[in-house]
Amino acid sequence: MKAISMQPVIDFEIHLLMTMKVRMSMAGKEFLLEAKLAENKLTIEQAKNIHERVAEALGDEASRFQNVKKLLGIVGPDASSLKYSSALWPGFDFTATAGEDGTD
């Protein structure tokens, strides 16, 4: 049996964290971002690179939902929503739902 790599999942979570960077900075809580990255032995610069790479892999809005499912290793094209619980941040859960036409 082929083992599933956790790296794409971790990269996706780093991407999510970096999408919150501006808000955290504005709230004076960027130190929390830096601490979480340090726990995972990452610098802000490395996290920015991961963020850009994942954003590119997710593609445009029309294909983003399917690409998120692929990135997270979720099989089955029929699902129109997914629930996700973070591996790095226990308690951080979200639900993503495709639009009526199957896109984001």
Brief synopsis:
The chain is mainly alpha-helical and 104 residues long.
Structure characterization notes:
By secondary structure, the chain is mainly alpha-helical. The protein has one domain. 53% of the residues lie in helices and 10% in strands. It is built from 5 helices and 2 strands, in the order αααααββ. It has helices spanning 7-19, 21-26, 30-39, 44-58, 61-71; strands spanning 81-85, 93-97. It has a two-stranded antiparallel sheet. A hairpin with a 7-residue loop joins strand 1 and strand 2. The longest helix has 15 residues, at 44-58. The protein is globular. The mean pLDDT is 85.
Topology:
Elements lengths: L6 H13 L1 H6 L3 H10 L4 H15 L2 H11 L9 E5 L7 E5 L7
Antiparallel strand pairs: 1-2
Features of the shown structure:
single chain; about 100 residues; two-stranded antiparallel ribbon; 5 helices
Strand elements, count: 2
Helix content: 40-55%
Order of helices and strands: HHHHHEE
Q: How confident overall, as mean pLDDT?
A: 85
Give the overall shape: globular
Number of helices: 5
Low-confidence stretches: none
Number of domains: 1
What fraction strand? 5-15%
Task: Output the structural class.
Answer: mainly alpha
Strand order of the largest sheet: 1-2
